[in-house]
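Below is how a single chain appears once it has passed through the pipeline. First comes the sequence as given, then the structure the pipeline wrote out for it. We keep one example in the README because the format questions we get most often are answered faster by looking than by reading.
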Amino acid sequence: MMRALWSAASGMRAQQTNLDVTSNNLANVNTTGFKKFRAEFQDLHYQTLKVAGTPTGVGFSAPEGIQVGMGTRVAATQRFFSQGDFMHTDHPYDLTIEGTGFFRIAMPDNTFAYTRDGSFKIDSNGQVVTADGNLLDPNIVISPEATNVTVGNDGNVTQTLNGAQQQVGQITLARFINPAGMESIGKNLFRSTLASGQELIGIPGQQGLGSIGQGILERSNVNVAEEMVNMIVAMRAYESSSKAIQTSDEMLQIANNARR
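Resulting structure:
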């Protein structure tokens, strides 16, 4: 009877994590460049009461054994990097990546982070930065006298100064062999890990990298209807595990109250 209690309790813990993941997806439905998560589960070890193939007589053996599972656990929270919908803003420093790749961001500790959020700004020095003031890498500096800034599909940045066009920099993109292995650090940023592999830097539109669109932002890839269904499924599974605990407790009470 105790197996049932612990197995059902593991199911409740797993579904609580599942609901946490779903809630985070819904909370970030309007977060630029957000990529949704999915909780994945594994069954726990099994208690073997009878091994399959156990002899049952002369020349005979049991075709099946008896195993009782001990519940479930969350094995991973997988992130999906499918393309989100595009939103046109016509702002010259709003950039999107159509396809594979990440913008490379220089962090204050001299490391690099990566993002799909292309809502860039200009700081007081004319540098292209994130909303938190971290520099886009390679560094792009726009002249305060520039009247027009253009970013090509290949990441080539030009400005119009005194009626003439000037090239001011080249935006590059990074990609990873396993982007799902990257570490989320908040603020729409990721860090590379051993699981993600080393970064591969290239020109947009080349080496399997996506192209850049100007005046466009990538919305999150969260499907609200799908997440609402996942939330209902998680709630019902949690309720079922709770009911299994209640039933096990009632059976233990009947056993404890049994009299000869």
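The chain has a mean pLDDT of 91.

See the next section for the split statistics.
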